[in-house]
Amino acid sequence: MPDVPRTASNRRYYTPLHVQAFLALRSLIQGFELPVAYDVMGLLKKGHVEQALWMINLQQYSIQAEKQRVEEVMSLIHQTGFSMYRNIQVTDEMKIGEAAVIAGVNPSAIRHWEKEGLIRAKRNPENGYRVFTSRELKKIIVLSSLRITVFFIEGMKQLLEALEAHDLTTIERSFKMALQKLNEQLEKQMNGISEM
Questions:
Q1: H or E stretch covering 89
Q2: Per-residue pLDDT reduced to its tens digit, 69-79
Q3: pLDDT 10s digits, 34-68
Q4: What angle do CA 164, 169, 172 make, to 5 degrees?
Q5: Cβ-proximal residues to 159 (8 Å cutoff; 6+ apart), any chain
Q6: CA atoms within 13 A on the CB side of 39
Q7: pLDDT, position 152
Q8: Rounded to whole angstroms, how far apart are CA atoms 67 and 185?
């Protein structure tokens, strides 16, 4: 917020600029994470408009990338089997690091999903390492694409059950809901930008 001047009796008084800054902050918070909104407003207060706009641009790039990922995974769901994903060979004996790279997540996320019962890894009898099949990798990719936009663990379990049962209607509904949430977030972001 801009510095608030005081009257001769030491009372704060707010100008139309303060009201606009407050409206912008409130609107930015709805479309972006709280730290991003505060950082953007801080940059604007210092007169670093271009830096604030680039920060906003990065956030919008991220939501665009998330949308593309959801659409990409939605088309993957329709494939009964797959041997390539993003130009990487998929096998039925992938280690956790390989599965993480293919899905674009940290191995710790895969361990967490395994602990929650969302996915199952076999163990290599020789070394005890986790081994993932292409079927489990597909689940990991679905989890990685929807974890941000829509679901809690219970919702994810239901979605993965639908995936196992090849219930494409339920799965498509979930992905459409994810896309709708991304659209709503984009609209909120644009409203925040318009208030800046």
A1: strand 88-89
A2: 888 888 777 77
A3: 999 999 999 988 999 999 999 999 999 988 988 88
A4: 90
A5: 142, 146, 151, 170, 171, 174
A6: 14
A7: 62
A8: 11
